[in-house]
Amino acid sequence: WGYDESVEADVPSYDPEGAKQLLAKAGYPDGMTLSYYYSGATTADKVCTILQSQLKNNLNIDLDIHKSDWGTFSESASSGVADLYSMSWTWYPDPYFFLNKLFSTEEKGALGNGAGFSHPDVDDLLTKALEVTDQDERAAYYKQALKAIVGYDPIIVYGTTKVSTGLSKKVQGYQSRADKLVYIVNDEVNVSKEQ
Fold first, then answer.
1. DSSP 8-state class, residue 5
2. How far, in Å, CA of 157 to CA of 87, rounded?
């Protein structure tokens, strides 16, 4: 409910030539070496291999790969040791658990904001979104924050898991959630089966 689909137009497109120009302007016309940290399964291994190949072939960037257990990975990512790191992120379906945890200055040094993203304009909007209780007002602040965050190009989202749930037509009241949790009965949900 805090997402703004129109911001997708602000996301940079795939542009290796433009990236080469940016690297040259930043003082790396011949490429560089970066450290990449991850912890994960076979899918993460494949993503890592593809990323390594594309960075080398397109931008002459050598990627030193560091795969480790979750504890070692999270320490490396949150402490700023990693030039690049990848992880999946899901939590409760509230913008706070995505935007605040990943992009608030207060979260620097935590795993979500291990890259050290810090911009006062974003912090101001995220704080305002936490201070109001009306969901529509919160959504308005989060939409503004999202636009500002995307303007800084802080992350690359390279994949989104598609969750499919198979249910009998007899099941009533089931709700698919962004955090992948399944509730059968709570204050908001009461899944039942037709007789």
1. G
2. 10
How would DSSP label each residue in 144-175? HHHHHHHHT--------PPP-----TTEES--
Nearest of 102, 159, 147 to residue 10 by alpha carbon: 147
The Cα 76–Cα 111 span in angstroms is: 9
Instruction: Supply the DSSP symbol for 12.
Output: P
Question: Which has the closest alpha carbon to 127: 147, 112, 144?
Answer: 144
Q: In 3-state terms, the chain is what percent helix, strand and coil (to 5)? A: 45, 15, 45
Strand bridging mode 192-193 / 84-86: unpaired
Write out pLDDT tens, residues 55-114.
Answer: 999 999 999 999 988 888 888 888 888 888 888 777 677 888 889 988 999 998 887 888
